[in-house]
Every structure is written in C-alpha cells, then in structure tokens.
Amino acid sequence: MSNPLKIWLDRDGKLLRLQLDKPKANIVDAAMIAALNEALGAHRGNSDIAAVLLDASGPHFSFGASVEEHMPEQCAEMLASLHGLIKTMLDYRVPILVAINGQCLGGGLEVALAGHLLFAHPDASLGQPEMLLGVFAPAASCLLPERVGQSRTDDLLWSGRSVSGSDGLAMGLVDYNADDPQAAALGYFDKHLAKKSTSSLRLAVQASRSGYVGRTVAKLDEVEKLYLDELMSTHDAVEGLEAFVAKRPAKWENR
Amino acid sequence: MSNPLKIWLDRDGKLLRLQLDKPKANIVDAAMIAALNEALGAHRGNSDIAAVLLDASGPHFSFGASVEEHMPEQCAEMLASLHGLIKTMLDYRVPILVAINGQCLGGGLEVALAGHLLFAHPDASLGQPEMLLGVFAPAASCLLPERVGQSRTDDLLWSGRSVSGSDGLAMGLVDYNADDPQAAALGYFDKHLAKKSTSSLRLAVQASRSGYVGRTVAKLDEVEKLYLDELMSTHDAVEGLEAFVAKRPAKWENR
Amino acid sequence: MSNPLKIWLDRDGKLLRLQLDKPKANIVDAAMIAALNEALGAHRGNSDIAAVLLDASGPHFSFGASVEEHMPEQCAEMLASLHGLIKTMLDYRVPILVAINGQCLGGGLEVALAGHLLFAHPDASLGQPEMLLGVFAPAASCLLPERVGQSRTDDLLWSGRSVSGSDGLAMGLVDYNADDPQAAALGYFDKHLAKKSTSSLRLAVQASRSGYVGRTVAKLDEVEKLYLDELMSTHDAVEGLEAFVAKRPAKWENR
Questions:
Q1: Which residue from B229, B238, B214, B243 is spatially nearest to B79, judged by alpha carbons?
Q2: pTM, entire model
C-alpha cells in the first residue's frame, strides 16, 4: 500500500511538510489518519523544527472522511483515531500551518480546523455536510465555536452548507486568503517563524493555547460519547450513512 | 385574559410558531413569560418539529420587560421565571429562529438572544437600556459576551445605548439582516432544516451547543444572585425603577 | 524620584485620570507599575468615580516593559507586580477607558489590554514583540484570545508583528478608532457614563465581567508559572534578553 501522506523536511530541516497525497479526494480514512498521527508523533520532540505545513496534492484539500468507516461496527475505532489526531494537533508544540485549495469538507475540514493558522484560496469551499447524511460532525462541533462563535457554528453545522474561502475569512473560519495558499504559508514561515528560537516558540505555543486546548479536548470527549452512545443508536444515523453509500435517498423516521 | 402569545404549527407540523401578540409593546411580562415557557415545554418532546420560529405581531419585537414587575417585592419571582425561560431556550432541542423588527429592547432582547439564529431588519433597534433605570440586565450580561465579546458587551450594557440591525450584524449581535426577517427565517427553515432528520438534528443541536449552554447557565445563576442579593439592596436601583414608573427623573445617591 | 504617573480627578471628581508620564518611552517598569497599583488601590472604594481614563503623555502610549527587569534575578518579582496590576484592572469596579497613541508595545499593550474599552488612533502601532527577544508575553497570552480569538492571538504572539490601530479595530483588538483617542474617551465618558448611578454601574461591571475575569486570572496564574519555571530555565530566553540589552544579535541554541 502506497503511503497516503508525503512527509519531508523543508527549509533546512526547520519545517515539517505533510501533504495529503491521495488526490483528488484525499479521503481522511484510517490509513491517512494513522499516517498523520505517526508523522506528528515522530517529530513531536524534534527541537529543530519551528513549524509544520499541512497541505494536499491535487486541486482539493479533502472531500472528507470515509463514510464506510462511519458504519456502526467501525465507528468507535475510527472516531478514537480521528479524535486522537485532532488532540495531537491542537496541543502540538510548534505552529501547524494549513494551506487549503478547492474542496475542504467534513472530516477534511475538521483536520484543517485542528491546525493553528489556516491559509485558504478565496474560492475554496469549506463545509461540514454531515447533517445531510443524518449524522453530526463531532470535532467541528468543538472546534468551530472557538473560531466563528456559537451561532455561526450552529448555522454551519445544522444547515450543512459550505462557504467560500473569502466568506470564511470574513467570519474567522480561516485566517488568510491567498491565490496560492501554500506559497502564502511558506512566506509566513519564512518571515515570522524561521528565525525564532524553537525552544522559546514551543513555550509560547503552550502559553497562548493553554485554556483553549483544555476546553476543546474536554468538549470533544463529551461529544464523542454523545455520538457513539446516542446518535449511533438512532435509526436515522444508520439509514443516512447506508443511503449515502448505496447512492439512494435516505428515508428519515425521526428516531 | 386573552393569550399574549399566538401558538401554531406551520410547515406540515414541522415548525412551531410562537408570536408575541400584545402589540405594539409586546411587553415580556409574567403572562408572556408563562405562555412562552408553557408552549416550549409542551413541544419539547415533539419529534415532528425541526425548529421553532419566534417573532412578534405589530411593528416591534418587544419594548422589554414589565418595569413594575421589577420592583423589590416581585423581582425574585419575575427573574426566576424569566431566567427559567432563557435556560429552556438555550438548551432547547431544536433550533430556535428569531425574527426581529422595530424595537427589541431590555427583556425583549434578552429573550431574543436566548434564541439560536437571529434574523433582524437592518433598521431594527436593539439595546439593553437597563442602566438608564439604575439596574443591570442579568441575562444579557451572560448572553452578550458569547456573541459580541467582552468589551462590546461592556460597552452596550454600561452605556445602555441601542444599535441598529445592520450594526448588530457587523458585531455578531444578530446573524442575518433582511427587509422581511420573518420571511428570511422561514426561507432558512425551508432550505436548511425542513428536510433534516429531526432525531439527528436534535443530537446535532446538543453536540454543538454543549459547553456554551453549561457556561452560560452557570453564569446566569451567579448573576441572578448578584442582582437579588446586592443590586436590589441599593437605594439607586429602587429609586431608578420608581422614578421610571412615576415618569420623573431619578436622583442617584450612588449607594 | 519624580512620580512616573500623573494622577488627578476630572469631571467634578467623577473621572479618575491616570497618565503615564515618562515620555517618550513611558516604560512600564517597577516604578510605573507600583504607581498604577497604588493609584487604583487608593480609589477602588471611591463611590464618587464612575470611570478611570488611562492615557499617556507624549506621542506614544508605551514602548513596553523594562527588559533589564526581565533578567532572571528580577523576573519573578517583576511579573508578580505586573500581573497583580493586570488582575486589579481586570476586576476593577468601574470602567477603565484607555486612550492609545503612537507605539503601544509589549508590557505597554498588556496593561492597555487589561483596560475595558480601548480608544486608539488609526495609525497607532500595537504589538507584542517579546518573541523577537526569545520570551513570550504572559499576560497577552491570556488577554488576547478573549478579544481576537485563538488563531489571531497565536499569529500576533508567535510572529511578534505589530498592527495598526485601524487593523486593530477590524480584529477587535481595540474598540474605537479616533484621531484624538483621549477626546474620544472623554466624550464617551460624558455621554454614556457621567450620569449613571455609580453604585449600579459598579454592580453592572461585576455582572457583565464575571466569568471573563475568573477565566483570565486562572490562566494568567498558570502562564506565569510556565514563564518562571520553564521559559526562564532555557538558554535562549536569557540569551535573547542579554543580547537585546547588549544591542547585539541573539544566538539561538533552541534549548
């Protein structure tokens, strides 16, 4: 099996590059999550790196998670793994920059939102369409309120609608717009991070994100439990996922 | 006594309509609060509804609470009832859309802010004038920081000034502007909520708002206690309310 | 030693004026911090005052803290004193208005951010350059997320970059822009605060800021400990401060 993730060191070993490499969908499936977790874990103690740049090959960041892996029998394992990755990213010791082109949806947007600074093309399309499949987006339920406030979070999650990169900038969903988000993130690294002491930077990261990380991780544990214990026991969640896989309309029974 | 609240089911039973129906002031008094509490309680377990739309008949949403009911002898009962309604709305299981025209002031704005998505006319006038009467707005003290941040909350509450619906949109006080806020809210329902599984939607609401609800309810309990135990023991709070009712200028003694 | 702070009562004794008075740098050093702490402490129970206006003489608000006082042997005492001032301001019983011209950097911006409503010239320059010296800004790590969100906080703190007053307004770092910030703050006082009951205002301040104050103070204690126990044990933090004082480039060892 080819590695779904390209991993290399850039900028004289100071920048860890991670590139989702299963275009064009770049599905965030078990293999992709494991590869991300492994790469981040391997470099967690690397005092040479000052930042991580996460992007994707091809025209799209990611179409989202694997719907098949959301089926009841695999769901608990998949969520534990995905949320482990989210927690690792949230509490990572150096800044994680994320460059986003094209579609960035569902589990793909959840992974991007766990990064620290997001650079998006103004025409990128960002959204959490989970509700269209009868399920909710657990990590986005925790990550979005901190970026866009509670009512915009509710709007995005309940509607399942997507927004453009430029609308995302206006609401705080992303931090920068650029026609070449990857180049913008590299430029940010060169200008603002490359010359910093990495030991000081690591403590600055911990200081500024303390509070945020604890709050978000605590909510994520609670919401994961709600997903597994309650949502997955409903008829409609299973029906929605099965209908999607079978490419047929779902029939809701509101239970 | 005529019912101060119109209650009906719309959109094939999928949308609970609640309309403040004591124009033009639509005062949020004991009768109105009780009617809202009862209607929301009666439909809390109704798995057919996908949302609530709260609006008002006449040109104004609400001029606010009953000042007479804020007098020392009735105040504790009135606040318990109003805050019970606020908590019910905050933690309601389906989205509460609120459509706002004209004046939306004091207790009226507090009730609106406890809703989930706010649609306001750009020329609507929103504010918490309580400080002009020598009291503070307890629920708004808890609801505003989550929408507009701490310093804008302080500004609005301490000054007592009103802002327009369009300024409110810019600062996150409301979510959408529309010349016909009721039609906009109905359009949102038709497009984004009507076709969702209500069992999945109910869990999505719980997931996204977890954290926010607990935080806000805990603060509301604390602030209610401050209002009853400290504010109502001051000369100026009672003087401000009595002067307002007597339509005379208040004489502050700063105690 | 001349008093580094001008202190007087304005507006018939209703407005406490505090003016940093060591232009042009207005360094927030031990003497300045002590003077601010003393003045605020002396007026904490003054029921005549409805607000505080903090500004600075000369063209700049403040270039920041004393780098010499950040050296290991003085650091704990300096931080305890500065953070004591920050906590006093955060929880002050009447609104603290801050008027900002010119440079407002480092410890100077931290003190300003502990105020409640910030009025800045559009061309003012606001930033936390600590990371350029190999240290982080402990109070700003706690105050900024509440104003500008986590990702903009990270961006400002990690990069050390400055933003203009007008950019600061757009991101919520300051509350108002004005060509004469001092006059704007005085105008705000005259219009919105001067005629309020100060006893009611004091309780309104406590009500709206409850939650925010507790959260921020708890994080500040945690971050101060991280600064003293971990950051000051690194080679690079000491090297950065020493290099700055010696006006030579720092040599990072990433440890």
A1: B229
A2: 0.97
